Amino acid sequence: MFEHRQPISVKEAISRLMSHVTKGETETITLAGSYGAILAESIIARHDVPSFHRAPYDGFAISAQDSIGASEANRISFQVVDHIGAGSVTTRQLVQGQAVRIMTGAAMPVGTNAVVMLEQAQEQQEGASFTIRKAFAPWENVSLQGEDAKLGDMLIEAGEVIHPGTIALLATFGYSQVQVAKKPIVSLIATGSELLEVDQPLEHGKIRNSNGPMIAAQLARMGISLNFMGSMSDSLPDSLQSIKQALEQSDFVITTGGVSVGDFDHLPAIYKELGAEVLFNKVGMRPGSVTTVAAKDGKLLFGLSGNPSACYTGFELFARPAILKSMGCNKPYLPYTQAVLTEDFTKPNPFTRFVRAVYQFQDTEATITPAGFNKSNAVSSIARGNAFMVLAGGTRGYKKGDIVDVLLLGAEVGVSQWRI
Predict the structure, then answer these.
(1) Confidence class for position 63, pLDDT limits 50, 70, 90
(2) Are the CB atoms for 397 and 344 separated by under 8 Å?
(3) How many whole angstroms separate alpha carbon 419 and alpha carbon 338?
(4) Which of 76, 166, 243, 257 has the lowest CB atom count within 10 Å?
């Protein structure tokens, strides 16, 4: 099945993948625990905000009509008849020439429609009265009812990620509970007899398993826990049983390694035995060209490369958006921008190349610099990088000063995204 692999473009691979993503379940959770979740309901304004005309500044509430004719040469005096703070209201019925001392956020008294800020007033008689030297227009210095949101307004559409500003909005409108996407179960199986656990001493010919902890962390910054199911043996029957068990327990199954065509790379045979539909098995990209995705009974299996950089890239480009889409996220792709290349990158790019890089924005200019050693088995450049520098296939290198495409890593989900 894999011996004659025909590479497809990254765009085509993502298109095939995302067309097979099925939407998961929803649940209702408390507002306090909702940070980072994805909204499964649209948020509608339950009342006007503000819900009353209010003072945006400390000062004096007056009737604008009473200020007509005020000037430097003709100062108009007001008597202060009450004093209210936010949350309080006055019962006084004002007559001409009267005012109420008012604090920021307090409701405008009946009969008033302007606020004289403290710096606009000259207080007299220890605050019992004040004068003004300018006329005020109706509703000057007043925060009007409904100016932020009106009853019934669509505030946030389903599919948005809940961030601190979202939580403030939800609290404002009394959403003590909110309907969100239920987080999927993602299982990981590592392959390779060469793998050691992190706490094991290094042996000749073996390496420590870095992909497992790395993917766990990539999921964690999405707010999702990893179900690690251990390592597959080099036995095909045992490996098949491990994958079957993972499928029964999970919404997504990720494997690292075993997707090439070596003697112990069993995943091609496992997909065939499972009756899974292979969506693609070779992508025109570097690193991670052997990244493979298969679908089985509405679930997705991601066969990521065993090489750390290729594994990392494959997760961010394919697994991440698929998982987010299953949760209803309407912006599942990596944030996209452009930046100025700070050094020559002379390596030719027969396929689209995703270079681990350091993105910076300083002095009004965005720059991007390769993060160092960039082969598919590299680990150091993953640690240094905070972005992918995306170099188009068919190019023969780039020069310092060129503008290149950039995908940002670790940014909050839901911002402007990659133009695939």
Answers:
(1) very high
(2) yes
(3) 12
(4) 76
